[in-house]
Specification:
single chain; alpha+beta; four-stranded antiparallel beta sheet; elongated; preQ1 synthase activity; EC 1.7.1.13; hydrolase; NADP
């Protein structure tokens, strides 16, 4: 006769998660890429901006347990830069949102490209090992006029 072992306390536990509406896009703020009071022309435009953090932590939509990711945001601004304190608050708003790695990475790109209208942006998130598997998601955006330039055979 086979008996089923008693369920260990906690093995059936699931933490509640918040929905996508908890992502606080309204907190994001920007500042001008070029200062109006600075008459100096900067050679080598456009600038590449990289923002990196090891503190991105949405949660698993199934268990509610945190997923810790190394987030890398790289972009070439057009007219606006993201203000870092507002970005930190925005990223922190993911802390209890149940979202798959792939969806979180795409959502970051969608929100930030809408905010900044950059010339280009790449978002990469390395979510680390879970169950022996490592997930790294990378999404890219290139402004339409830059895509046409990239296809120009005269370059």
């Amino acid at each position: 006769m086979t008996t089923t072992p008693p369920c260990q306390p906690g093995f059936d536990r699931r933490y509640d998660v918040q929905g996508l509406d908890a992502i606080d896009v309204a907190v994001l703020d920007t500042f001008a890429y070029v200062r109006q009071d600075d008459p100096a022309a900067y050679p080598g435009e456009p600038m590449d901006i990289e923002i990196i953090t090891d503190e991105f932590s949405p949660v698993c939509p199934w268990s509610g347990l945190p997923d810790f990711g190394r987030l890398e945001i790289r972009y070439q601004p057009r007219e606006k830069c993201v203000e870092l304190k507002s970005l930190k608050y925005y990223l922190t708003s993911y802390r209890f949102v149940g979202i798959y790695h792939e969806h979180a990475t795409r959502r970051l790109l969608a929100d930030l490209t809408q905010l900044l209208d950059p010339l280009s942006m790449t978002i990469r998130c390395d979510y680390g090992m879970r169950g022996g598997l490592n997930t790294v998601c990378t999404v890219r955006y290139v402004a339409p006029e830059r895509r046409e330039d990239a296809l120009d055979p005269q370059d």
